Amino acid sequence: xxxxxxxxxxxxxxxxxxxxxxxxxxxxxxxxxxxxxxxxxxxxxxxxxxxxxxxxxxxxxxxxxxxxxxxxxxxxxxxxxxxxxxxxxxxxxxxxxxxxxxxxxxxxxxxxxxxxxxxxxxxxxxxxxxxxxxxxxxxxxxxxxxxxxxxxxxxxxxxxxxxxxxxxxxxxxxxxxxxxxxxxxxxxxxxxxxxxxxxxxxxxxxxxxxxxxxxxxxxxxxxxxxxxxxxxxxxxxxxxxxxxxxxxxxxxxxxxxxxxxxxxx
Length: 265
Fold this sequence. Notes:
- This protein is an alpha+beta fold.
- The chain folds into two domains: 159 residues, Membrane-bound Lytic Murein Transglycosylase D, Chain A; 97 residues, Immunoglobulin-like (Sandwich), CATH 2.60.40.
- It is 17% helix and 35% strand.
- The radius of gyration is 19 Å and the shape is globular.
- It starts with a strand and ends with a strand.
- It comes from Niallia oryzisoli.
- This is LysM peptidoglycan-binding domain-containing protein.
- InterPro entries: Gmad2_Ig-like_dom (IPR018911), LysM (IPR018392), LysM_dom_sf (IPR036779).
- Pfam families: Gmad2 (PF10648), LysM (PF01476).
């Protein structure tokens, strides 16, 4: 599937901006910004942008996560709400001690990735394929000049917000990834004693990879980075399934902070 792994910035157009100045600032190109935001007919006049437009801007030199560029008037609360995640998590994964203080132009990692629309896609089919609620996709893309919820275009690159809990963000594998035995699992978690657990299931309820644990490099209250692998203990009985990443209650052992990522076999 055409998941885009190069680093992208989500930039809100300001007075005086041009596509050229934006491209220069973020190591991109005018043609790529035009293409992935569909800044041409029938959606808009060629290259026409206005202050307040939200653009996806690809860094053509770097791979990595999606970053949101703070716009005047933004707050961590408004950014978290737009991408349907949590204030604590956005502040924690960006090492922000006071979530009430962010500044214009600041680059914040957000739990999202970029998907290039293919012929035959619809927002509904994309929502189901990646296990991401349709309204979350619409919210993340509101304000983009080339975005229309009822009409999408092949080649347009959608912002897809990832499912998170308040305390866990999984950045690998991305939703929709085809996984094999030994798949890497990476992310950040705010976890008691830094313990993070994971298992892999198929859509018939078969536990393909038994529960295992890994340890983040820092324990709560910080969001530590964790990494692990997922070996298959049995063969999947369906083509689709879910990676579960979570913690367990120190009180009763129940699952907490569960993040489910849709995967394919």
